[in-house]
Specification:
Layout (H helix, E strand, L loop, with lengths): L16 H8 L2 H12 L8 E3 L3 E2 L9 E2 L2 E5 L4 E7 L6 H14 L16 E7 L11 E7 L6 E12 L14 H11 L15 H9 L6 H66 L4 H8 L3 H8 L2
Parallel strand pairs: 5-6, 6-8
Antiparallel strand pairs: 1-4, 2-3, 4-5, 7-8
Helix pairs in contact: 6-7, 7-8
Length: 308
């Protein structure tokens, strides 16, 4: 059963879990994206979608769950994720995910295994800015020799794509073929016309058809709305946490300001009393050296007070 979209929105939000997996869960779409990303010497003929869960090897070890995980015919493995908010230790999590995939390649019991590994690539679509790094829409991370810049291994790579750079930009903004993907993903939810750049990448025609709400079943739309509500709730929580943090900061700032003001006031009061005492002793004809000893200040400070 199909239902018509009753809102003005034409396409799903691809940054939701439902929308992202509906689009990139299609083999030909994933192959087209990987081809534009890697520009391989030979075509990617096929991919195999893998179980998203990597079960921990022991009770103490932590398993990992990805949005999508696939493997090409030559054994290269891809971890693909959409991240809507920054998480603490996100950089470390990227390293953990890739390392965990490498560890599954060990051939236990095979004494002839010579540690040859298949490549593992992490692809991370980000709806936020990464902390502690120079701002870049696209970023490629791999192992290299620090002193020379030589590539140490091509088997491990991570790609991060900050979609905020493409949101709300004019159609002329994307300059490279890969950027057409990011532009469409960042702006799809608000588009009312056919997805652009179909001449440059024909697969966008299929993506538009898959992502169009009018082409979805009632069950799919229901799942999508549940997913959207979850995302909106998370955003509300984030906004509340930010406002609460700001309010706490303001309160702490005011409290600190009051305390500092009181301390300064007390200090000023003490200084005023000391200065009055210095001047009174001077009027009684007490020598400056003795005033300094009685007031417990330097001779220079005594004369500074008397010159006021």
């Amino acid at each position: 059963m199909y239902v018509k979209n009753t809102t003005s929105q034409r396409y799903i939000n691809p940054m939701t879990d439902f929308g992202f997996k509906k689009i990139f869960g299609e083999k030909d779409i994933m192959i087209a994206f990987l081809t534009d990303l890697l520009n391989p010497e030979s075509p990617i003929e096929d991919i195999e979608f893998l179980d998203k869960d990597l079960v921990a090897e022991s009770f103490e070890m932590r398993g990992v769950i990805y949005d999508l995980r696939c493997r090409t015919a030559d054994g290269a493995e891809f971890i693909v994720e959409m991240q809507n908010r920054y998480q603490s230790n996100f950089n470390d999590r990227i390293v953990f995910y890739l390392s965990r995939s490498f560890s599954t390649q060990e051939r236990k019991g095979d004494h002839d295994w010579n540690y040859e590994l298949c490549p593992v690539y992490g692809i991370f679509f980000l709806n936020f800015r990464m902390n502690g790094l120079q701002q870049r829409a696209r970023r490629t991370i791999q192992l290299q020799v620090v002193e020379t810049g030589e590539v140490f291994s091509t088997k491990l790579k991570a790609f991060t794509f900050e979609l905020a750079d493409f949101k709300g930009k004019p159609l002329e903004y994307p300059k490279e073929k890969l950027d057409y993907w990011f532009y469409n993903l960042a702006n799809m939810e608000t588009m009312t016309t056919n997805l652009p750049f179909q001449n440059e990448q024909p697969i966008f025609n299929k993506i538009g058809s898959i992502a169009e709400l009018a082409n979805m079943t009632a069950e799919e739309i229901s799942k999508y709305h549940v997913n959207i509500d979850t995302v909106r709730t998370a955003r509300c929580v984030m906004r509340y946490e930010r406002e609460e943090g700001r309010a706490e900061g303001r309160t702490e700032g005011m409290t600190e300001g009051i305390e500092i003001g009181m301390q300064r006031g007390i200090a000023k009061g003490k200084n005023d009393e000391r200065n009055a005492l210095v001047k009174a002793m001077k009027e009684q004809g007490i020598p400056d050296e003795q005033i300094a000893i009685i007031a417990n200040i330097s001779l220079k400070e005594v004369r500074s007070v008397l010159d006021m």
